[in-house]
Specification:
The protein has about 250 residues and is of the alpha/beta class. It is about 25% helix and about 30% strand. It has one domain: CNF1/YfiH-like putative cysteine hydrolases, CATH 3.60.140.10. It holds the Pfam family Cu-oxidase_4.
């Protein structure tokens, strides 16, 4: 896995940008306190502003419910903005697809050969249910991607240093994630969401050199301002992680 530090990223004031030949990926931060909450008027305004900033025809997102449900987006098809799910797959060019987070894990997947992309929201429930693995399987089945070409980008999220969970939830994860070493999965009651995501990616066949992670914790990062639901005790600030195919 490649840990992407701030020197590697094309860091704008409001975004971490990753530019590929066939795509642009953005992970928003909170440096300007911009919130991309779909449930507020200001949040919708911020989301729509991405069209001009990134030259997109549309910005597509979901009503996230902490599930393992995955939807495909087809341009000029049925709107999915009010559909309940936690991952989007598309092959449409010039369309931003993205997910909202404020501690949960955002994952972006892209196959530049087949020109297929996905955006995933993985909280503890989605992580427990392996939504990342299931998204890749759907991409294989419905878009015939070659997983050897698939690249994964894991955005800022609450990390093992700060994510304490209940004893009950700890036991559930230990019972479910049997192939992950207990000492890697937990430190006390602090859960490592990323190690579960990495397990899913590797089980799906993604090569280690194609896995990338921005090594920032939403809760304790001092280098960059990030929205943290837990740290702010439930405020409505949201980050938006997205990809646009070119």
């Amino acid at each position: 896995m490649n840990k992407l530090d701030l020197k590697v990223l094309d860091k704008q004031e409001d975004f971490f940008i990753i530019n590929g030949k066939e795509f642009n990926i953005g992970f928003t931060n909170a440096e300007k306190e911009r919130s991309f909450n779909r449930n507020t008027e200001e949040g919708i305004k911020e989301l729509n502003s991405l069209k001009e900033e990134f030259g997109a025809n549309e910005v597509i997102y979901l009503k996230q419910i902490h599930s393992d449900k995955i939807l495909n987006y087809i341009e000029n098809g049925k709107s999915i903005k009010d559909e309940e799910a936690d991952a989007i797959i598309t092959k449409e060019k010039g369309i931003i697809i993205g997910v909202f987070t404020a501690d949960c894990v955002p994952i972006i997947l892209v196959d530049e050969e087949k020109k297929v992309a996905a955006a995933i929201h993985s909280g503890w429930r989605g992580t427990y249910e392996s939504i990342t693995f299931k998204t890749i399987e759907k991409m294989k089945k419905e878009f015939s991607i070659n997983v050897k070409n698939l690249k994964a980008y894991i955005g800022p999220h609450i990390r093992k240093c700060c994510y304490e969970v209940s004893e009950e939830l700890k036991l559930k994860f230990i019972e479910k994630k049997t192939e992950i070493k207990k000492e890697d999965l937990f430190c006390g009651r602090n859960l490592n969401l990323e190690v579960c995501i990495l397990d899913d990616l590797k089980k799906a066949g993604i090569q280690d050199e194609n896995i990338n992670s921005i090594d920032l914790c939403t809760y304790c990062s001092e280098d960059v301002k990030l929205h943290s639901y837990r740290k702010s005790q439930g405020s409505y600030g949201r980050m938006f992680s997205f990809i646009i195919l070119r």
